[in-house]
Amino acid sequence: IEKVLADSELVSADRVLDCGEWYAAMAELETYVRWELRRRVIDSLHRGGVRLTVFGPGWQGSRYAGQFDLHEAVDMAEVPAILRRSKMALNISPHMRWGLQERVPTAMLNGAVAVSDYGEYLAENFVPGQDLLVYAWNEIEGLPDMIRECLGSPVRWEAIRGAGYVRARDSHNAAARAGQLIEISQLAKYFATLR
Hints:
Oligomer: single chain
Strand order of the largest sheet: 3-4-5
Largest sheet: 3 strands, parallel
Strand content: 5-15%
């Protein structure tokens, strides 16, 4: 992290950053942290013999070329069909501790078992091991075994897949989100009148 900040040339002991510079430095740092944690997950899966299919830019020229089934980025409209052909969908979103990355319910709604890093929102709204698989950053080496155990038991895989679908269908669809946004806006209007 110190190297990323030093390389950005935005942070030094004799400078005070303006707001735009601070945002640029933090955006660069967040990108570094996200890619570093993504690398740790993928390295763990590779060492554990889990074969991945990966979509997105930049993977073909990476050190993972030849190790995984790599594809360029696809249009978002193609994602549901890809997920319907998938047994699992891996989510790596270390910056979403108190929120939900749309990939999790999208995977569930399309019949894949969602595999995601731990977050407070996930813990409050899903049942790990029942609706989805959840891994902890400090136990990342156990992720390959978790995935293999689930895939190795068609009964368990189907139970998690089915429960995840029902949970996402009932609580994490577009209509549910719209209702939450309306509720939040009504609360905001109410609190605005209290001034």
